[in-house]
Design brief:
Elements: H1 5-16, H2 19-36, H3 38-46, E1 49-53, H4 59-74, H5 87-90, E2 97-100, E3 124-129, H6 132-146, H7 155-159, H8 166-178, E4 185-190, H9 191-196, H10 198-209, H11 216-225, H12 228-236, H13 266-269, H14 272-285
Parallel strand pairs: 1-2, 1-3, 3-4
Length: about 290
Amino acid sequence: MTSGPIDKVTMKLVALAPQGFRSAVHPVTSRFVERWSPYRYYLNRRAEVFMLWFPKCGGTWAKLQLHTALTKHYGVVGAPPLELEHLKDFEPRIPRIRPFHDDAPHWKTPEQLREHKRRYAGRKVMLLVRDPRDAIVSLHLQVTKRWKVDPNMSLDEFIWNPRGSFHTMIRYYNIWAKNRDVPSELMLLRYEDMRADPHAAVRKMIDFVGVPDVTDELIREAVEFNQIEKLREREAAGQYDTRRLQPGDPNDPDSFKARKGKVGGFREVLRPEDVEKMTQILRDEMDPWYGYPI
C-alpha cells in the first residue's frame, strides 16, 4: 500500500523488530495506520477510483496488468510497477486509482471490522474477490513467510485463527455485499474469472476506470507480460527494486509474492474435514452475490 513518510518509517521499524515483538505489534500498527493516518485520508479524498481487496485475492496481479496497459497506452516511462496510484502524476489523463486492503481486514477479528462503507459513498469502486478457501491458504504463506508474523503457526491453526482468517474474510465479504449500493459504481471482479480469461478482466478494468481507445493488442501485451509464471521468474531473478515483489527467502518457493495462482489449489493442502467445514460455511453464511462456492 502506498504510504506517507511517517507510515513508511513506522512499518519499517516494525519489520526490523524481533519476531516476537513484530507478531504482537505489527497487526496493531497496521490497523492504527489504516484508520488514523492523515496521509491515507488525503489519498482517499483525492482518489477517482478505488481498487479494494482482502489480501491474496489477486490485487497485485491486477495492479500489474492495469499498470502495464495504462503505461503502454499513454507512453509513460519510468513509473514503478506497483505505484498505480501515482500514474496520474506521470500522465494527467490517467484516472487516480487508489489500490489498498480496505479496512485492514487481515489484522482484525470479525467483530473488529467496520460495518459501514461510508468513505466510498458516491465513489467508483473495483472490488476484487477470491474463493476464501484458496485465499486463506495463500494468506497463511504471506503472513508467516513474507511478513513473518507468527511464523510458526501451522495452516490448520491459521485458517481457524480468530484474527484475519477464514471467518474474518466471510464477514468482510458479507459487509461489502450489504453495502454494495453505497458506491456510485461498483465492479465485482473474481480472481477465478481473471484466471479463466485475463484479457476480458483487463478490458473490464480499463473500461471501468474510464480510459478510452485501449486496443485489444495492447491488452494482450499486458496480459502476456504479466503471466504469473513470468512474474515468478522475474522475482526469482531479483529484477524488482521494491521489497513487495521480492521473496521472503529466495530458497523457499512458498515465500515468493508470485506463487502458483492456482484455482482450487486448497484441496491439495487442506485437510478434507477442513475443506468440508469451510465449504459448508460458504453455503450457509456467505452472501450468494459472490457466486461461491464455485
